[in-house]
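Sample 1 of the test manifest.
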Amino acid sequence: MLGSLTILLLCQLAGEVVVRLLGLPLPGPVVGMVILFLGLVIRGRVPTTMEQSVRAILGNFALLFIPASVGVMVHLAAIWAEILPITAAVLGSTVATIVVAGRLMQALSRHKREDAA
Amino acid sequence: MSGDLTSIWVYLSTSPLLGLTSTLLAYQAAMWIFERGGRSPLLNPILISVSMIAGFLMATGTEYRTYFDGAQFVHFLLGPATVALAVPLYNQLPLLRRSWAAVLAVVLVGALMAGGSAVLIAWAMGGSEKILLSLAAKSVTIPIAMGVTERIGGIPSLTAVMVMLTGVFGAVTGGWILDMARVRDQAARGLAMGIASHGIGTVRALQMSETAGAFGGLAIGLTGLVTAVLVPLIHSWIR
């Protein structure tokens, strides 16, 4: 567990360094994810201990979003003042995006399968 | 006696212990409710925990900043957990090898759709510029969304709220929306959840299947990337 956590933190650290060196408009952890992914591709498999630790961490992924989300309480007044446009924008765009992205991906993968068949 | 309790509260309310403990307690209570309710997406654990904590803070007159002093230890783990998404992604490597071109195309269309339609809808309904700018990046993971919003002159903390609302709405309704749209393919379901509702949608996708979770995780990074590059560009064209 400790070893795996150290590797995750090292990848994040490397990600932060790359982002700052290259001036990328990306957060360090996302670049860290790419670095770990490349590392796994080079190594050719996921070590068992890492598989277990990652399962434990991602099993409680929801917990990690709570502190930032509680920040909603600070903006209640600003949100309330424009509740209609905000609600319509969030609901409408989310439904549209899920439908379009889901249908498009399904169509493209089906197309691919028919090509292979 | 009540004097003692008051002084204990005065001590606890300023210590990080309370923010951290209340976060873990609320999360476990929410997970218990979620499991008891047959894992219904309506009982979204993040929605329930946030309501409980925000309600508690407002009822006790505690400031968000005081709460966050303790909760930041949990918040910090968001970084390593984002890195950890590389593992389910790697486990999907064979699938990814076959469909990377489709994934890239769908992410490009989806990311433009997510930000573009949100801004257009809010604009059509008379939303203020402050709201429009804070909506553009609302479908991507919190650290990217806040960074992008800062670049285009929106209010980052307001964006964090939009990100949260988008995530919870997508997580709660995404399964039904995908069923209604007859999207059965697990890769397509996960990708759509991740593009529209970032990490919170991906938590839901992980509950659907491991494949859906992996494509959700993939979408978080790619949609974030596309949004981080395109939103400031498009904003500078429109100006």
